[in-house]
Amino acid sequence: MPKLNDRLDVQSISAQDVESFNADGAVCLRGIISDQWLDVLGCGIERGLENPSPFQNIRTRPGHFGRYVTDTWVRHNFDEFRTFCDDSGIAKIAARFLGLDQAQFLFDSWIAKYPGTMMRTPWHQDTGIHGSSLIIWIPLDPMNKDTSLEIVRGSHAWGRHYHSERFDDVIAAAKAEGKRAAPGQREPERIPDIDRHRSEYDIISWDVEPGDCLIVNALSVHGAPGNYSTTPVRRYSCRWMEPGALLAPHGDWIAEHLLQLSTGAPKLQGAMEPFDTAMFPVLPANADA
Ligand SMILES: O=C(O)CCC(=O)C(=O)O
């Protein structure tokens, strides 16, 4: 995969964007991902669909319409995502919202929901990290609010920590077993039934176009509807953390995946492990870049 010269425009991020992110736990940046990089990400998904990685999952329930496909750790498996994370300047955007000069790559994934897919992405937090972390959620197709990512405004500051959710359970059930809190943090609890009580929550979402992206605090409770439109909707998410963040004891599913990847990366459960291998680069390598 050739290096592209195109760098995303970090300068266009305003102090107001950062303030909104800090206050609400999410912000929408308009027109910041260039067509060139959108093409690269789209090619990565196309190639992933043709050559599924060991982490690709078809999550459509038997007897249901549509098609719901996810893949994870894609930077590790596909050059398109590696070059995007390493060369596009996206790390600089992550760093800006972490309030730092650099950000450490954690992991990435994509989701494609085809028309007629009713399944929601369940409400969840992206936990497992001891330290600040965030998600950059990048739509590759236009999505209106009926389809696009939803965030419970301010939930990153609730001081709550919920069990991780399985994306394919008939009723998204909390995986309660084997989870422990990091020292000084409260034990994870079951996520409330937000869909049954939507009016009690301040749920925010945006109509988005390719080129836009959402920056979401990893502790913000977020989820997404099915796809009720007539076209496929694909999105790519990369997750970034403050350099030196640790794999928390409750990050057991991350540890399980790392074990599967056999990378020599941190895999111990129950310990505060650093992410200090090449799989988790601190970027940009030169903070002034
Ligand atoms: O796009 C979605 O359906 C969910 C994305 C998500 O949960 C994430 O990127 O962490």
Automatic annotation (TrEMBL):
Protein name, please? Phytanoyl-CoA dioxygenase (PhyH)
* InterPro entries (alphabetical): Phytyl_CoA_dOase-like
Organism name: Ruegeria meonggei
Source domain of life:
Bacteria
Gene3D superfamilies registered for this protein in UniProt: q2cbj1_9rhob like domain (2.60.120.620)
Q: Name one Pfam family in it.
A: PhyH
Alphabetically sorted, this entry's keywords are: Dioxygenase, Oxidoreductase
MF terms per GO, please?
Answer: 2-oxoglutarate-dependent dioxygenase activity; iron ion binding
